[in-house]
Amino acid sequence: MSSKAIGFSEGGDVHILKNVTIPLSDPSGYDVIVKNRATTIHSLEALVRGLGKDALLGSWPEEYRVQGYDGAGIIYKVGPEAERLFKPGDEVWYAGHVHRQGSNSEFTKIDGRLVAKRPQDWTWEEAASLAVEYVTARELLVEKMKVQAPRNSDTLLIINGAGGFGSAAIQLAKTIGFTTIIATASRPETIEWTKQMGATHVINHRQPLKPQIETLGITVNYVIVAYDAEKNIPIALDLIEPLGTIGCVLSASKLNTDPALKKSVNIVFEGMFAKAKYPHLGSPTQGEILKEAADSIQEGRIKPILKQTMHFNLDNLKKAHETAVKDTLVGKLAFFIDENSFEE
Predict the structure, then answer these.
(1) Is residue 282, in this structure, part of any structural domain at all?
(2) pLDDT tens figures, 68-96
(3) Where would I find the Enoyl reductase (ER) domain in this sequence (predicted)?
(4) Are 303 and 195 members of one domain?
């Protein structure tokens, strides 16, 4: 079996993206094959494309690398261990695996434990746009930052609230029980968007944050850094209350931990692909988290973070990569996939 896809081999600008055909073996174990109906774009994908197919992984064993970390579609085949989870024809969504071929393709083979049945009231594009962002936010807030039942006095600050991750994190924080959620944004459209997502206060990250928080008369004991970790973790350490917790979804190669030690502040990092990469630590739980998200969606507690929809084809993917490099997306951009998506 094979799959049409859009991929690349060497690194470079968007012109190295091309229509390709990749081999696809039958699923074994917990694997399933999904016929994709929607995919998305992340800024990380533009970074990897610029560096080449081996980027971040050491080496990529196949001729082409196909990206796409979120997906939604229809189960096409199931492996023997996945038969108790899904059957052909099930409509699903998933948060993918950076070490496997992704959802910028006709078919994707993926561990079925990273998959869940999609929210029925949402479009394919709405479902795909939330998958990675919700899983990342859930793992960071609940598993890493250990937030279970916030007190009324607990306050969460999210630095960069208008992106896909920030949009999901604001909503999840609200469902967990935070009554005070401060998000940063700077443009009129991003300020309005973060308010729509549920932020109770919005401050400008182009201006010093601490004076703005002091003006609000609020103390902060949880901070999520979702942009420029090396710049913003020190800022978070300065404004956070002693014994607070900072969560980050980005790498920070240079970090002075002295302020954290003096305040006894926890700093934790979230890498959503780690569970799938290290299965010896236990079964991946992304599928369970997506099922939880689908329940919250059905209850009306989570709204779509989709801001823009495009037809998936080579030209539009190139345009999306150029936008992703600028890292100015509001909410998420998603693509719908059809029979014309892989035509030359």
Answers:
(1) no
(2) 999 999 999 999 999 999 999 999 999 98
(3) 12-335
(4) no
